[in-house]
């Protein structure tokens, strides 16, 4: 006999279900609890932990066990934060391209190497000798990046770890495997490996064959919303949770989740800038753009939620500012970011700009000096203090956003009416205002936690808590989250002159 309503309500939480979103970024990880249902979308951060790479014997590694410990601590906190003591499911997203190699027993063969490590130096040139860049782009649609997974595998050729490997798991798939004991390869992140055909959503087998990559290393592909196992008994015990707790595949590349978390209005064509350590600027399409002109413009075609294509350009992003702050702190200056941003807003605009996509800015260390040298090399005034350096960084990022949005429209044929800025940079009012001025388009800023929102929404839809396509999911975001609007102002000609100073 079923229990009476009072007994049932005491055994199960009332109201919309809550979901745990594990969102791993390049500088920190966080576990968020999201509650979603008809007309309801709330997000709460329950645990944040640092992501500190470690250099050992000249190689830069991710501290992947430290990250996993942070995930377990976060799931324990999530259990305490949700009604009923356990989330309805767990979803995991992270940065792209990096991976762990495992042996036949599923044991990790070593810490994953950081994409900023120098081991891929020269790998792109070696790859070009195997397959011309034009042919590789036509097959995979991936922009040239020295750290693409394919280049990492080219660099690892002949190593004992790769020889012993029987499985290759991208970072969120590795975390999911440790939580569930089940292996899979989530599609949106797989599309960043330069081994996937964006037209078919399947592996680009001729590319893998040309480079001698054994695709059997990759577990079966999963799509956002697919089941990815359940938390193991030992994980439940470690986190103080009652089972079962399912794990759901989400857009496991954090940008895929962030773009799903763009609060775009149905029927209004939009561009997006997903800001954080990187800025990912582009448009959402139904099919990839694989032209030679697109390759020359260094645009990438990555897969998104619901079969969409994220047509975008990678820009160095707030990494420039983060590295400046680290340098100043190491020098004993300890600047306060909000005060610096206020001073930067008062500094002369477009006095100096740099190419925010220049590979010279990719490695860590002494960023203010590299920015000064870039200004000197291009005959522009050198920033005189930290505030002017910050203004140079933000002007340069806005200029890069302008170029990417304009190029995305030109190359895809998709004209846009508005730019959505999501991710951590959505909190930076000066950056958002400058992006509106540079693009000459309205900017809608927010949410800052777009990746976590996208993660939660895919889980909630898979669980039946919300329904509909991306337009419906985004409508829920738009009606529940605070957003800021910036209209373009100022002299458009000044941005054109600044672009000429950078691009010639």
From TrEMBL:
Record-annotated Carbohydrate kinase FGGY C-terminal domain positions: 271-463
Main enzyme class: transferase
Start and end residues of each Carbohydrate kinase FGGY N-terminal domain: 21-260
SUPFAM superfamilies found in the cross-reference section: Actin-like ATPase domain
EC number(s) stated in the UniProt entry for this protein: 2.7.1.-
GO molecular function, one term: transferase activity
CDD domains in the record: ASKHA_NBD_FGGY_RhaB-like
Pfam families from the UniProt entry: FGGY_C, FGGY_N
Domain of life from the UniProt record: Bacteria
Keywords: ATP-binding, Disulfide bond, Kinase, Nucleotide-binding, Rhamnose metabolism, Transferase
Family per similarity comment: Belongs to the FGGY kinase family.
Record-given protein name: Rhamnulokinase family protein
Organism from which the protein derives: Streptomyces desertarenae
């Amino acid at each position: 006999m079923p229990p009476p309503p009072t007994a049932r309500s005491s055994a199960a939480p009332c109201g919309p279900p809550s979901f745990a979103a594990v969102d791993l970024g390049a500088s920190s990880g966080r576990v968020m609890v999201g509650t979603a249902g008809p007309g309801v979308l709330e997000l709460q951060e329950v645990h944040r932990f640092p992501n500190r790479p470690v250099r050992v014997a000249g190689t830069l590694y991710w501290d992947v066990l430290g990250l996993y410990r942070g995930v377990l601590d976060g799931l324990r906190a999530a259990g305490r934060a949700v009604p009923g003591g356990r989330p309805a499911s767990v979803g995991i997203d992270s940065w792209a391209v990096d991976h762990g190699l495992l042996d036949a027993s599923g044991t990790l063969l070593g810490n994953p190497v950081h994409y900023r490590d120098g081991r891929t130096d020269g790998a792109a040139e070696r790859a070009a000798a195997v397959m011309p860049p034009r042919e590789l782009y036509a097959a995979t649609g991936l922009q040239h990046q020295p750290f693409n997974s394919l280049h990492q595998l080219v660099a690892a050729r002949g190593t004992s770890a790769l020889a012993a490997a029987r499985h290759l798991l991208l970072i969120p798939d590795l975390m999911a495997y440790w939580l569930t004991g089940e292996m899979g390869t989530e599609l949106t992140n797989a599309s960043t490996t330069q081994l996937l055909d964006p037209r078919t959503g399947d592996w680009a087998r001729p590319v893998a064959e040309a480079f001698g990559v054994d695709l059997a290393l990759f577990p079966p592909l999963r799509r956002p919303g697919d089941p990815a196992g359940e938390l193991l008994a030992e994980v439940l015990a470690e986190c103080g949770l009652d089972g079962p707790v399912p794990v759901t595949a989400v857009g496991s590349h954090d940008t895929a989740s962030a773009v799903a978390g763009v609060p775009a209005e149905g029927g209004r064509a939009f561009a997006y800038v997903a800001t954080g350590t990187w800025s990912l600027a582009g448009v959402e399409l139904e099919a990839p753009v694989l032209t030679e002109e697109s390759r020359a413009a260094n645009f990438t075609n990555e897969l998104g939620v619901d079969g969409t294509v994220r047509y975008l350009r990678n820009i160095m992003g707030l990494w420039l500012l983060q590295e400046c702050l680290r340098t100043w702190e190491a020098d004993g200056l300890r600047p306060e970011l909000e005060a610096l941003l206020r001073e930067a807003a008062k500094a002369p605009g477009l006095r100096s700009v740099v190419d925010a996509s220049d590979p010279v800015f990719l490695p860590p260390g002494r960023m203010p000096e590299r920015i000064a040298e870039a200004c000197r090399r291009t005959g522009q005034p050198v920033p005189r203090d930290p505030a002017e350096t910050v203004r140079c960084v933000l002007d340069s990022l806005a200029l890069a956003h302008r170029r990417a949005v304009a190029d995305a429209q030109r190359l895809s044929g998709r004209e846009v009416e508005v730019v959505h800025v999501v991710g951590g940079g959505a909190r930076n009012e000066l950056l958002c205002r400058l992006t509106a001025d540079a693009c000459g388009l309205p900017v809608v800023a927010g949410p800052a936690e777009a990746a976590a929102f996208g993660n939660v929404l895919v889980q909630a839809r898979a669980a039946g808590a919300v329904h509909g396509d991306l337009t419906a999911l985004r409508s829920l975001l738009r009606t529940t989250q605070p957003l800021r609007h910036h209209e373009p102002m100022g002299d458009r000609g000044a941005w054109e002159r600044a672009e000429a100073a950078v691009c010639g």
